[in-house]
Design a protein that fits this description.
With about 375 residues, the chain is an alpha/beta fold. It is built from 11 helices and 15 strands. Helix content is about 40%, strand content about 15%. Bound molecules: pyridoxal-5'-phosphate.
């Protein structure tokens, strides 16, 4: 059996262990501490955002973002359908109702036309506008944020940026993570950098980030005893994990270079095969290429499907995965309204994520490429 090739596995640098050891040496094991402060500063500086709160996960960050913009039970929230379920679940945590919107074909992200149609139709049906919009940068590819921001401003709807997959990506020379009223990041184990588990909420509004830190530490009022006037959460990142994050920030740009080089190699080697398509970078966009993804159109490939590719890779002990299954096709969201024309569904049917970790070797990439080429 050939050694396993993973889709995207953690990749530690040289200094993470030193930061963790420092936490042990100073007994800053208890939640919060200097590494949390340092990691928050690093994130804000990197993304060009004034304030950041390090949290237990990206999901927690999205939940707090919805609370901060005032999403309440019964409200509707518009969300990109083609995404990981964590983009949408926090809507339901708030007792609100998700309304899903299709993708456009260039970036595979929120389609501005469908977004506008959805807002108009929900307002006509309900007499009130959606309480928030959630846009995602899938696989690191920036969404068409100018158009999306402009639509949200026109209707005065708060915009939340799910940049969980896009740390290190840029749009018109601004970092993903800085492109909305509130932005979230994830440091889960498979992301471009990881703290084993973690997330962050970023904003230029200091009040929001202060309130996020308050809610994330059980909403404790200023009193010597434990006193609470609001329902709180246990959503902060621990000082030990923030130490890993500080080490990972030192290698982030190198990780982006590796992942982009993997994409370039795959495209050079596989680009001429019939029926293969790619997620295209617009001229003013820079993707971290968190995952290299391709589509395979069986009408052009002689009947070869993305599932044929996936199974052939699996037989060689190589992990690959279909693209995110759109939320409006998930059993749990079967009742949710959807606006679009089947782009997300087609991408799901034809799309595959290839092994993309920054720790893959040239030999690993060659194995993946050989197997795919052998099918044609
Ligand atoms: C990973 C991810 C999240 C959730 O992040 P966690 O840290 O795993 O909670 C949210 N949205 C998207 C698009 C993701 O890929």
């Amino acid at each position: 059996m050939n050694p396993k090739i993973w889709l995207s596995s953690p990749h530690m640098g040289e200094t993470e262990q030193r930061y963790v050891q420092e936490a042990f040496a100073t007994n800053w094991i208890a939640p919060l501490g200097p590494h949390v402060d340092g990691f928050e500063k690093d994130l804000g500086t990197y993304c060009g955002v004034d304030h950041a709160a390090a949290l237990s996960s990206g999901t927690a960050a999205l939940h707090l973002a919805l609370i901060l913009v005032g999403v309440k039970a019964g409200d509707e929230v518009l969300c990109q359908s083609m995404t990981f379920s964590a983009s949408a679940n926090p809507i339901v945590y708030q007792g609100a109702v998700p309304v899903f919107v299709d993708s456009e074909r260039q970036t595979w992200n929120l389609d501005p036309e469908a977004l506008q149609a959805a807002i108009e139709d929900r307002m006509a049906r309900r007499g009130s506008k959606p309480a928030a919009v959630i846009a995602v940068h899938l696989y690191g590819m920036p969404a068409q944020m100018d158009r999306i921001q402009q639509i949200c401003q026109q209707y005065e709807i708060p915009l939340i940026e799910d940049a969980a997959e896009a740390l290190g990506s840029r749009y018109k020379n601004q970092a993903c993570g800085s492109l909305a009223d509130l932005s979230i990041l994830s440091f889960n184990g498979n992301k471009i950098i990881t703290t084993s588990g973690g997330g962050a909420l970023l904003s230029n509004h200091e009040d929001w980030i202060r309130q996020a830190r308050f809610l994330a530490t059980q909403a404790r009022d200023a009193a010597p005893h434990y006193q609470h006037s609001q329902i709180g959460y246990n959503y902060r990142m621990s000082n030990v994990l923030a130490g890993i994050g500080r080490g990972q920030m030192e290698v982030l740009d190198a990780r982006v270079r590796f992942r982009r080089a993997h994409y370039t190699y795959y495209r050079e080697q596989l680009g001429s095969l019939p029926g293969i398509g790619w997620q295209e970078e617009a001229p003013d966009s820079f993707s971290n290429r968190w995952l290299t993804t391709l589509t395979l159109n069986p009408a052009l490939s002689g009947g070869i499907t993305r599932e044929d590719l996936r199974l052939a890779l699996e037989r060689d002990n190589i992990e690959s995965r279909p693209l995110w299954k759109p939320m409006h096709l998930q059993p749990v969201f079967a009742e949710a309204p959807f606006y679009g024309a089947g782009v997300a569904e087609e991408l799901f049917d034809q799309g595959l994520c290839l092994p993309s970790g920054s720790n893959l070797t040239q030999g690993d990439l060659e194995r993946v490429v050989r197997i795919i080429q052998s099918l044609f």
